[in-house]
Known about the structure:
Structural class: mainly alpha
Strand content: under 5%
Order of helices and strands: HHHHHHHHHHHH
Amino acid sequence: MPDPVFVELATAVYERLAATYGVQPSVPRREPMHELISTILSQRTTEANEALAYRRMWERFGSWPAVRDAPTDELTAAISPSNYADQKAPRIQQVVGRILDERGGETDLEFLRTMPLEQALTWLTDLPGVGIKTATLVLLFCFARPVLPVDTHVHRVSQRIGLIGPKIDPTAAHPLLLALFPPDPEVLYTFHIDALRHGQRVCVFSAPRCGQCPLTDLCAYYRTVVAPISG
Length: 231
């Protein structure tokens, strides 16, 4: 069981972020295969370039079997707006190929909606190069499963506030942060989106804009690093 002190802190952070950025509607963003492949494309890439890479890929190939069977250099060229396209292209082909093989030539991932949660996570993370962040994004965003994706922004915000320790990496943070919130997909979705936005706009990597932050009275980083300097 998580420490009640951290549960109370997580609740306060959630409420403050929701008041700042809004309670997010828990609705599917994209078709599950789109979500899965776009999440691979999004790694170390802007949202605009991720979308452009996916669109160019689909315009060029038009089906998942065609993506799987494409010459890898052609797929690399199509997704080139995404950083590290030469690494992502073969990974995408491996993922699509595995799914087509295991699902009898189909790419419908709807079965993940009702599969036991741990089994669904295992199925996704068994795909080549798919980690816990990608798996939880697909399950939460597409199927409203009670999981919490931890990207670099969510991790940074949570770590600075003190919800997780300074040596906890993003992979290890997934179960620790999830345990601090109720198993409610709408709460988890709102925290993910709002913490991500906060990390992009205020709690940025190199020089956090603490003067604009609504969380300073809750934040360990502000209390131990910023306040002693400014005070």
